[in-house]
Design brief:
By secondary structure, the chain is an alpha+beta fold. It is 15% helix and 34% strand. It binds 2-oxoglutaric acid and fe (ii) ion (FE2).
Amino acid sequence: MTIKEQPMMNVRRNKIITTDKEIAIVGRIEEPLILILENVLSHAECDTLIDLATTRMQRAKIGKAHEVSDIRTSSSMFFEESENESIHRIETRISELMNIPLAHAEPLQILHYKAGEQYQPHYDYFKSGQVVNNRISTLVMYLNDVEEGGETYFPSLHFAVTPKKGSAVYFEYFYTDDHLNGLTLHGGNPIVAGEKWVATQWMRRQIYRYE
Ligand SMILES: O=C(O)CCC(=O)C(=O)O
Ligand SMILES: [Fe+2]
């Protein structure tokens, strides 16, 4: 018999209660732990994030050299750490939800995909060489409903999540068994119709920001 590894989140309940919101767990995979969450952001918060990000978007750059790449064809931006009241409130809720201190949080990222744009399968953690303070978990929050396409998909698990405004997908890759981490390979399917906005929060193993 194999023993299940201990996940970082307490997932016995069907909801997660944070200081200002009750978040429903509406779907899950146990190992690696993947949770589908509803009511992470209110519709008003989704609209605020899109509004704040709109004028600050750039073609997404990935990797160490920050090169423009066909792996990700969307546009992106990062908020400053707790740059205003709404960002701070959202970051605090996310940190409670992910069960990781805010000091371990990367800046909140916004991605915008137009029709035809996509994010090919990738790992969110860094694999090359000795990574000191690697990423350990991800929360992808959907800021709008996509007319068609744009699912977040996990090819190794044959599993896809349909974007829904205010909902999110959570996954973690902090397992000792690296095979489990590898199963979190994921991408964003091409947008067939409409557009897609997401906010991504990555958490680090150790302190990453100073508050
Ligand atoms: O857009 C998506 O569905 C996935 C986004 C993603 O993988 C990321 O931001 O790391
Ligand atoms: Fe990702």
